């Protein structure tokens, strides 16, 4: 597996000066939760530009606001300060063209795999023939062909997560947000699911934002990785991996993979130690 | 031998034993008639239509009580769920509800509704409704948050989220409430007919008992047992299918 860039480079949160290259943008985004015991400043201020077709991952210590960041981009949560934009429009609600895969199993246990995958298309009133075509493709793409009539309870955790990814894929999102989608899976399954995610990213040309705890996952899958600080989470480093687009999990055996992971851990270790010393870990 | 066959065998052996004991006089006929005679008597009762009005009345009351318990319990459960302070206040009452002997309220219902079906249905609802309230609270509590977020991602309006996501997600828990409500409705109606009715299977059993008509009494008891078993088996079958899909 070749490496496009010889060294790990650190860049700014912006990807380009050209507005067309920016798919989603956060500027000064801050999120504060009001709790019975007072306010919790969870995130920000955060600046981030996601390039069109980019695979961007976010790593950071537990509770640093990674999922809050994803919720704001997905339109599931609104920031107290700052602006969030997708395709040049302010994000007020869940924007058209955004798909989300959650860490928890979000498959519908009362529906078969096929009905799960077709769910969003039916709600959107897509033509039945088109639904059939897209569902067949997504089920085949995610290797679920033999399980189309099965129910989620009959599948493993990894297979159920594939169902959720297929359900997102059929909607043909231009921005895919993944909140630790492989967090509950074993290491081998995670690597293989990572390969499938890369294949999906290449074939759809979508922009991907992946939230993950796993440094190896971020290093293997991403074009760029953002490292977040402890709460309130802000980006403290951006690492460009320099992988070529046609990559897969075999990059883990290259020295460059070690360099990226070491770089990420160098930054993250300091943040993780802060949490441990504060007794919040 | 499978579990279900073993269960049938145990029941068959017990029935056979009772048959033998009553046929040989170990159990006097004044106390209990042989099970085979109960079946013959029940067949005669059903064919002759002697108790048809009582049977129809009781089962109609059970159906009305069960249906109203499920509807009232479901709506009340949703209201209580949406008002946390009300829930906190009611929680201890709901938890200890079945320690209250509901039938002590029968004079109040007679005063309110008079002697007849309305009082009987009211007592049965009082007995059955709390199981549905509790099941609804449990079901709504257990809807995974991620499913509601998924509905948001699909930009589904509130009503569609409730009907297409929340209701099916809570269905296995709600059905447990339906099952219990039906069982309590049977108990409430039949038991109430003993004390505050001039008609119905419960009344007919009490009448037969008071007049030493053992054959009628046991045949009607058998009718209730068979009906409850059939209804319960059907509900259990649906329940098993719903529970089998519950994964979390």
Q: Please trace the helix and strand order of chain B, writing H or E for each element.
A: HHHHHHHHHH
Rg from Cα of chain B: 22 Å
Report the top-level CATH class of the largest domain in chain A: Alpha Beta
What sort of overall outline of chain A do the alpha carbons produce when their principal axes are compared?
Answer: globular
Q: Which parts of chain A are unreliable, with pLDDT below 50 for 5 consecutive residues or more? A: 1-7
What share of residues are in beta strands of chain B? under 5%
Beta content of chain A comes to: 15-25%
In spatial order, strands of the major sheet of chain A run 1-11-10-4-9-8-7
- What do we call the CATH topology of chain B? MetI-like fold
The level-1 CATH class of chain B: Mainly Alpha
Give the name of the CATH architecture of the largest domain in chain A: 3-Layer(aba) Sandwich
Provide the residue-averaged pLDDT of chain A.
88
CATH superfamily annotation of chain B:
MetI-like
Percent in helix of chain A = 25-40%
Which of globular, elongated, flat, extended, rod-shaped describes the shape of chain B? Answer: globular
At the third CATH level, what is the topology name of the largest domain in chain A? Rossmann fold
Q: Supply the CATH architecture of chain B.
A: Orthogonal Bundle
Number of strands of chain B: 0
């Amino acid at each position: 597996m070749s490496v496009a860039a010889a060294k790990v480079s650190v860049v700014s949160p912006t990807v380009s000066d050209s507005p067309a290259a920016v798919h989603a943008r956060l500027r000064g985004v801050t999120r504060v939760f009001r709790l019975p015991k007072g306010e919790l400043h969870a995130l920000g201020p955060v600046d981030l530009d996601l390039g069109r077709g980019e695979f961007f991952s976010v790593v950071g210590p537990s509770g640093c606001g990674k999922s809050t960041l994803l919720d704001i981009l997905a339109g599931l949560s609104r920031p107290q300060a700052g602006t969030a934009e997708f395709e040049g429009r302010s994000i007020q609600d869940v924007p058209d063209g955004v798909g989300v895969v959650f860490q928890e199993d979000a498959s519908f246990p009362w529906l078969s795999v096929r009905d799960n995958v077709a769910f969003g298309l039916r709600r959107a009133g897509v033509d039945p023939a088109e639904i059939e075509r897209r569902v067949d493709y997504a089920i085949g793409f995610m290797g679920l062909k033999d399980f189309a009539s099965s129910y989620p309870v009959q599948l493993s955790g990894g297979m159920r997560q594939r169902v959720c990814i297929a359900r997102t894929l059929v909607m043909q999102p231009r921005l895919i947000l993944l909140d630790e989608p492989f967090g509950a899976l074993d290491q081998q399954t995670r690597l293989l699911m990572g390969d499938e995610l890369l294949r999906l990213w290449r074939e759809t040309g979508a922009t991907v934002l992946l939230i993950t705890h796993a440094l190896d996952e971020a290093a293997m899958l991403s074009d760029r990785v953002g490292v977040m600080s402890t709460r309130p989470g802000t980006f403290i480093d951006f690492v460009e991996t320099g992988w070529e687009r046609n990559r897969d999990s075999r990059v883990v055996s290259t020295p460059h993979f070690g360099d990226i992971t070491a770089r990420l851990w160098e930054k993250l270790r300091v943040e993780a130690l802060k949490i441990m010393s504060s007794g919040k870990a | 031998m499978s579990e279900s066959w073993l269960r049938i065998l145990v029941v068959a052996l017990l029935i056979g034993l009772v048959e033998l004991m009553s046929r040989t006089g170990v159990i006097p006929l004044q106390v209990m008639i042989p099970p085979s005679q109960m079946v013959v008597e029940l067949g005669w009762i059903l064919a002759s239509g002697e108790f048809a009005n009582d049977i129809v009345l009781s089962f109609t009351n059970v159906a009305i009580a069960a249906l109203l318990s499920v509807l009232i319990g479901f709506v009340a459960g949703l209201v209580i769920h949406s008002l946390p302070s009300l829930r906190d206040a009611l929680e201890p009452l709901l938890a200890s509800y079945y320690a209250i002997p509901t039938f002590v309220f029968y004079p109040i219902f007679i005063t309110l509704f008079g002697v007849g079906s309305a009082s009987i249905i009211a007592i049965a609802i009082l007995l059955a409704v709390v199981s549905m309230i509790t099941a609804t609270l449990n079901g709504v509590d257990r809807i995974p948050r991620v499913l509601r977020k998924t509905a948001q991602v699909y930009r589904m309006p509130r009503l569609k989220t409730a009907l297409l996501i929340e209701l099916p997600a809570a269905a296995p828990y709600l059905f447990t409430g339906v099952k219990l409500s039906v069982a309590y409705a049977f108990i409430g109606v039949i038991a109430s007919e003993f004390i505050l009715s001039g008609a119905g299977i419960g009344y007919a059993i009490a009448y037969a008992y008071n007049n030493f008509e053992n054959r009628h009494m046991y045949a009607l008891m058998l009718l209730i047992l068979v009906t409850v078993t059939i209804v319960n088996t059907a509900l259990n079958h649906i329940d098993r299918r719903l529970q089998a899909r519950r994964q979390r």
